Amino acid sequence: AATIGLMGAMDEEIALLLKQVERQNTVVLAGINFVTGLFHGKEVVVCKSGVGKVNAAATTQVLIDRFEVDTILFTGVAGAVHPELNIGDIVISSSCQQHDMDATPLGFARGIIPYQEVSDFPADRKLVRLAEKACSKLCTDNSFIVGKVLSGDQFISDYDVVRELHEKMEGACVEMEGSAVAQVCHMNQIPYVILRSMSDKADGTADVNFAEFTVLAAQKSFEILNEMVAGL
Ligand code: ADE
């Protein structure tokens, strides 16, 4: 039977999900709690990876190897990079790339992984379409975009950096896990999509906004995920 891997990085990002998963059983691997159960009658594994690309990569590989998930959906918050995004708005990943991959001294463009064919990992088109459908239904003010998710092991809180991430790397939002999930999914040929609701604008006020809006934004991202899984 198909099993869906559902990931977040922080407690706030999976709290609502865990409340709704039935017949829960927890397995601990690599120090991560993997909660199996049923959600909308479907077999799921819910987990909190922890923050950053290494945590996200290791957790994703465990989901694939040990739980044999055939789809991975990530729900959480991000800093807005596209200038038209506001706090609470949704970004659906068209692809994910690491903004902190930097081998420019060797002549590689920023974000390019040396000696590798793909550095900008495309999300599954069917999952993107399903996410768009969920957003069209639930985001009444049409406050969502499909765009590139940029990830790095940095909390961004500088407007100049944000502008660069948009102008030079064509990012829609910035966070710390999506590209690691995307890369591991690509290596294993597992379809994925990242859903992110904006908790801040990654500028000088990002720390304050992140603290204030993360719970609300995480809730919005969960609502989209909820609608998506119902339709899978
Ligand atoms: N997640 C939420 N806001 C973020 C930011 N400003 N930078 C990195 N990750 C984030």
Short structural description:
With 232 residues, the protein is of the alpha/beta class. The chain has helices at residues 11-20, 53-67, 125-138, 159-167, 178-188, 206-231; strands at 3-8, 22-29, 32-39, 42-48, 71-80, 90-98, 120-122, 144-151, 171-175, 192-200.
Report on this model:
- The chain has a 5-stranded mixed barrel, surrounded by 5 helices.
- A hairpin with a 2-residue loop joins strand 2 and strand 3.
- Helix 1 packs parallel to helix 6 (206-231), helix 2 packs parallel to helix 5 and helix 3 (125-138) packs across helix 6.
- The radius of gyration is 16 Å and the shape is globular.
- The chain has 6 helices and 10 strands.
- It has 232 residues and is an alpha/beta fold.
- Helix content is 37%, strand content 31%.
- It has helices at residues 11-20, 53-67, 125-138, 159-167, 178-188, 206-231; strands at 3-8, 22-29, 32-39, 42-48, 71-80, 90-98, 120-122, 144-151, 171-175, 192-200.
- It has one domain (3-231): 3-Layer(aba) Sandwich (Rossmann fold), CATH 3.40.50.1580.
- This is adenosylhomocysteine nucleosidase.
- One of its GO terms (molecular function) is adenosylhomocysteine nucleosidase activity.
- It comes from Paenibacillus lentus.
- InterPro entries: MTA_SAH_Nsdase, Nucleoside_phosphorylase_d, Nucleoside_phosphorylase_sf.
- Keywords: Amino-acid biosynthesis, Glycosidase, Hydrolase, Methionine biosynthesis.
